[in-house]
Amino acid sequence: MSKIAKALKRAQEERADEAVVHAAIQQPTPDTEEPSSPKAKPRQTQIQEASDIHMERNRLLTGGSAQHIRDAFNVLRAKLLQMTREKGMNTIMVTSPGRQEGKTIVATNLAMSIARDARQTALLVDTNLRWPGVAQTMGVCKDQDSGLEHYLIGQLELPELLVNPGIDKLVVLPACQATTESADLLSTPRMQKLVQECKNRYPDRYVIFDCPHVLDMPDSLVFSTYVDGIILVVEEGKTSQRDIKAAIEMLGEDKILGVVLNKHITQ
Fold first, then answer.
1. Phi, psi values for residue 91, rounded to 5°
2. What is the CATH number of domain 46-262?
3. pLDDT tens digits for 150-175?
4. What is the pLDDT of residues 201-244, one digit of tens each?
5. Whole-angstrom distance, CA of residue 50 vs CA of residue 73
6. Which residues contact 112 (CB under 8 A, 6 or more apart)?
7. How far is 229 from 249, CA to CA, in rounded Å?
């Protein structure tokens, strides 16, 4: 059993024990005062500047990116904000029917594009716990013991995990260690609490979740119930119409905000 699997099992057992203990504890009388705990000092987000060379090599937007690529993501951003901003829909999941169809690149570039909007900030969360890719693609998260998975098993708290990649108004919450317990971790109360906290804390923030593919895995089906909307990424010349239709039916057509055609070559 892996470290994460053991920690997940231990956390589940502790939650069960806490429920029993809580039921046995009586409420304090009105004249009983509990000692106040000292306020913790706010933790500054760690800075790990992403290299332009590394990002360009991984097809991420930089100052040197071709204008037509920047324009494509600016259009995607504009359409997304137009559909969601007035409705308060700010938690967006990015997924694809199958593996390696470009969803991590789309999610990362979309988050960076949103961060450049004058009225918005962005948080990019890697919820692909089976095959984490955001940190590697951006070149951040050198510490393999400080990812989302460590928050979900109760080892670390959110402020300890956030990374500033040196891009204005963008914060990254990476996943660092791959785990086969991904579906169980995503279904924990801590994950649901995290999504709600991210949604409600900052009114100007969009939260982009890079999720696993849909077909043949339960992870995205579990996670799709937490978010406001879904962007489906498909690869031109690779993703079949049958797989696109199957993915939309599984996720629910009402949740789909749009489909992004990746690696499309314009004439």
1. -110, 110
2. 3.40.50.300
3. 999 999 999 999 999 999 999 999 99
4. 999 999 999 999 999 999 999 999 999 999 999 999 999 999 99
5. 19
6. 60, 61, 73, 122, 167, 170
7. 14
